[in-house]
Design a protein that fits this description.
Chain B: The modification 4-aspartylphosphate is found at residue 51. Chain B: One of its GO terms (biological process) is phosphorelay signal transduction system. The structure holds 2 protein chains of 2 kinds. Chain A is α+β, with helices and mostly antiparallel strands. Chain A folds into 4 domains: 2-224, Rhopdopsin 7-helix transmembrane proteins (Up-down Bundle), CATH 1.20.1070.10; 226-300; 308-462, GAF domain (Beta-Lactamase, 2-Layer Sandwich); 537-693, Heat Shock Protein 90 (2-Layer Sandwich), CATH 3.30.565.10. In chain A, 62% of the residues lie in helices and 14% in strands. Chain A is built from 21 helices and 14 strands. Chain A has helices at 2-26, 31-53, 60-87, 97-115, 140-164, 167-197, 209-223, 230-263, 269-300, 308-321, 325-340, 365-377, 395-403, 435-495, 500-531, 544-554, 556-562, 581-598, 633-636, 647-652, 660-670, and strands spanning 120-126, 132-136, 345-351, 354-361, 387-388, 408-414, 417-424, 539-543, 565-570, 576-580, 604-614, 617-626, 674-678, 686-693. A 5-stranded antiparallel beta sheet of chain A has the order 4-3-7-6-5, sandwiched between helices. A 5-stranded mixed beta sheet of chain A has the order 9-11-12-14-13. The termini of chain A are far apart. In chain B, 48% of the residues lie in helices and 19% in strands. Classes of the chains: A alpha+beta, B alpha/beta. The interface between A and B is medium-sized, with 23 and 20 residues.
């Protein structure tokens, strides 16, 4: 009987321990789990003191002491199980702290009274099976209230919750209730039925084990939340127990046998038990304590202690939760700052190796654009590798990194295309990037590609949509105006009798309008081609002088009537320029037309063309200067926009789409050239320059 | 019957002027937004035919000015423009224009008839 008793208690003890560990490992922050562990601890102690109270042949006083301890520890079970019933299975305590305090005090009061001589006054004797018989004192009432009543209350709470719940919670509560019912039945069976009907108290010592069954039910209900996850928790709990047992065993072997055999010292049992317990406790708290301390020192020394997987999933979540480029960049950069402690970071968005926008934090983004475009042009950035400052060999690039405080560059690609670049600065602590940091940023860069591409496309879509609306409104008006002129002119010619002079006016106007309409249509279609990036260049040697001459013939009437003076100064070296003839003609026509139309009467227009060499490349630079209406500060930034015409320009020439410079610039860029201008202001003339490569 | 035509396109103005004069209207004209209001206030016509895209002030601005001035606010205004989008039409009508005619969509005679009909119904 003794052996069975001992073994069953050991099994019960270990089972409770495993359950407690499994539950706290699963989630150490959930109130339900914490309360369950408290519950388990109480029953662990209960098992121990219960066993001790039933050791045969001990003095009545000892038995009484242990029984008092049993009552004391079980006093706490009532409040604990009630709190658990209220909270289960939620992670947050639903009972106000005031009530928790009251229940705690009740438990304490009951425990205190249990330890006093007034709950059980003495042990009067033993039963046939060596079960001690205590005699109850006056304070037994407190125990009766705090323990059985609270258990009853818990049962009622659980039933009410069960009725009002659904789904997973309902099944979890079912397990809890089943556990209690089984527990209760078992207790009744062993305590009352066996004693009164079968007249034996032999099973009374085994009553505590029924609570192990209850614990199993509750633990199952808690752990089965994600059905398949039970095994890892239990596996970890079991391995933890083995770990503790091994440590305790090693320690006790050395501690117990060492002194005895090596030094001939004998130690008292309490010392041995005490120090083994301390060792076990130290082993148990080692890991959580270590974690806490490293977290704290991490904060102190700016060490980023992040979980790479968790951070990556956080970043992935950001990228999949928004399509707005601004929001996405901001959140990504903020997360990198917060978790990896990277104080400066920026994302550069690329289109065809050109930087189209920069979103940064900690960097002055305007300063970054041109130096970084230089790096991109040098093709240092290849698709798959991160570039770290410490690995650089090219001094010029190193200088750029140093000047702008860049530590590393991570290309973000989709397929073969570089769509963005992540640049990062120094970490808050000033230390170098760790391997973890590099790996994280690398993986992030490789995963961010698609999300960023989508956001950029969406941004473009918005821009395109706006452009389309503007396009439609400008075009429809600009095309309708000459058309209504033609229509009404023809109606007049048809309906009214008029003298030849008047007829000629209407006919001339209609003719001019038709020509104008065709030109506008050509420009519109060209602009559409440019939008779709369908500009093709076929280079042939073009005679600049001839082009300008042809142009002044075309505008000869206007030049004569305004008495404009046009001077040419074209170097022989650039008399022939390799270019697409049609497109170069258009460029010359547009710039010359502007100069002619916006010049005042008697104004001078000077045209120069010369060769320039820079960076081993030869270019032809052509300049057209006029003394016309000029360009103001506020108009300057819009000159290259499609459909832009300044008010002054509109007054000078009311009908124009404003596509001329937009098209000219696109054509020049297609040749790999540049277009720029200078003007001192209103009515101070303007100088337009463009370059074309000669090689 | 007095009418003021605000139109910056020379040829269109010529056609409108001739046709209205033929229909026995006294025609005054303005070729930009800045002088439009002054001309209208001076002549106080029975009808204004107003283009929207004008050099200087736009037709919308002129319309607003007219409706704010006590003397001119009752003069009916017909907008004659090539801006054809719904939002422009809505805006003009909301600002108090009587009607909105898109030039390219109507022969000149129809335009004259519409204006005449408006004036006649107003004077009743």
């Amino acid at each position: 009987m003794n052996t069975i008793f001992l073994i069953s208690h050991i099994i019960g003890f270990v089972t409770l321990l495993i359950l407690g560990l499994a539950v706290i490992i699963r989630n150490s922050k959930s109130a339900t789990n914490i309360l369950f562990v408290v519950f388990v601890l109480e029953f662990l102690i209960y098992l121990v003191v219960n066993y001790l109270s039933l050791i045969p042949n001990q003095s009545l006083d000892m038995a009484l002491t242990w029984i008092r301890w049993v009552m004391a520890i079980t006093s706490f079970t009532g409040p604990t199980v009630l709190l658990l019933a209220y909270t289960f299975p939620r992670p947050v305590l639903t009972v106000p702290l005031g009530w928790v305090a009251v229940l705690g005090l009740l438990g304490l009061a009951s425990a205190a009274s249990a330890l006093s001589p007034y709950l059980f006054t003495e042990v009067v004797g033993y039963t046939a099976n060596n079960v001690p018989l205590p005699s109850p004192g006056p304070l037994i009432a407190i125990y009766a209230i705090s323990v059985p009543m609270l258990w009853l209350a818990s049962f009622i709470v659980l039933i009410r919750k069960y009725r009002g719940s659904s789904g997973l919670e309902k099944s979890q509560l079912a397990y809890f209730l089943s556990g209690i019912i089984i527990n209760l039945s078992y207790l009744l069976l062993l305590g009352i039925v066996a004693v009164n009907i079968f007249k034996t108290s032999a099973f009374i010592p085994f009553m505590p084990l029924s609570f192990v069954a209850l614990a199993i039910f509750i633990a199952y209900a808690i752990l089965r939340h994600r059905f398949l996850d039970i095994q890892p928790s239990i596996a970890r709990a079991v391995s933890y127990i083995f770990f503790i047992v091994i440590i305790a065993a090693i320690y006790s072997v050395f501690f117990v046998f060492g002194p005895t055999f090596l030094f001939d010292i004998s130690l008292d049992l309490p010392i041995i038990i005490g120090s083994i317990s301390l060792t076990v406790i130290a082993a148990l708290i080692f890991q959580p304590l270590y974690k806490r301390i490293t977290k704290w020192t991490g904060k102190l020394f700016f060490q980023s202690l992040y979980d790479s997987e968790e951070l990556l999933s956080k970043l992935t979540h950001i990228m999949s939760s928004t399509i707005d480029l601004n929001v996405m960049s901001r959140q990504i950069l903020a997360t990198l700052d917060e978790e990896v402690k990277i104080t400066k970071a920026a994302i550069l968005f690329l289109d065809n190796h050109r930087i189209i926008s920069i979103k940064g934090s900690g960097y002055d983004v305007d300063l970054l654009k041109s130096p970084l475009e230089k790096i991109i042009h040098r093709e240092i950035i290849s698709s798959y590798h991160a570039i770290l400052f410490q690995d650089l060999r090219d001094e010029a690039v190193k200088e750029i990194f140093r000047k702008y405080e860049i530590e590393a560059i991570f290309p973000i690609t989709v397929g073969q295309e570089d769509i963005a670049i992540l640049i990062t600065g120094a970490k808050a602590s000033g230390s170098m990037y760790s391997l973890q940091d590099l790996k994280l940023l690398d993986v992030f860069a490789s995963e961010a590609g698609l999300a960023i591409k989508n956001a950029v496309l969406y941004e473009n879509l918005k821009i395109v949509s706006e452009a389309k609306s503007k396009f439609i409104s400008v075009v429809s008006h600009q095309l309708r105006t000459p058309l209504s002129g033609i229509r009404w002119s023809l109606e007049m010619l048809n309906q009214e009798a008029m003298d030849p002079k008047e007829s000629k006016t209407f006919l001339d106007n209609s003719y001019q309008s038709v020509i104008f309409l065709s030109e506008q249509l050509d420009d519109i279609l060209t602009a559409l081609d440019i939008y779709d990036k369908r500009v093709f260049i076929k280079k042939d040697p073009c005679n600049l002088f001839q082009l300008f001459k042809d142009n002044s013939e075309e505008f000869s009437t206007l030049i004569k009537s305004k008495k404009l003076i046009i001077k040419y100064n074209i170097d022989d070296v650039v008399s022939l320029v390799p270019a697409d003839h049609g497109k170069l003609k258009k460029i010359v026509n547009t710039l010359m037309k502007n100069a002619i139309v916006y010049s005042p009467n008697g104004g001078r227009i000077s045209i120069t063309a010369r060769k320039e060499t820079s960076n081993d490349r030869n270019r032809a630079v052509i300049s057209i200067s006029d003394e016309g209406i000029g360009i103001t500060e506020s108009e300057r930034e819009h000159i290259f926009e499609e459909f832009f015409r300044s008010d002054k320009a509109r007054t000078a020439l009311p009908n124009g789409l404003g596509l001329g410079i937009f098209i000219a610039q696109a054509f020049i860029k297609a040749h790999d050239g540049d277009l720029w201008f200078y003007s001192e202001g209103r009515n101070k003339g303007a100088d337009f320059h463009f370059s074309l490569p000669l090689d | 019957m007095k009418i003021v035509i605000v139109e910056d396109e020379e040829i269109l103005l010529k056609v409108l002027k001739e046709k209205f004069e033929k229909a026995n209207f006294d025609v005054w004209s303005a070729i930009n937004g800045d002088e439009a209001f002054a001309v209208i206030k001076k002549t106080l016509p029975d009808m204004v035919v107003l283009d929207l895209i004008l050099p200087g002030k736009s037709g919308f601005e002129v319309l607003q000015e007219l409706k704010l001035d006590a003397e001119t606010k009752l003069i009916p205004v017909i907008v004659l423009s090539n801006l054809g989008q719904d939002e422009d039409i809505k805006k003009a009508l909301q600002m108090g224009a009587e009607d909105y005619i898109v030039k390219t969509q109507h022969p000149i005679n129809e335009v004259i008839e519409k204006v005449k009909a408006r004036i006649l119904s107003k004077s009743r």
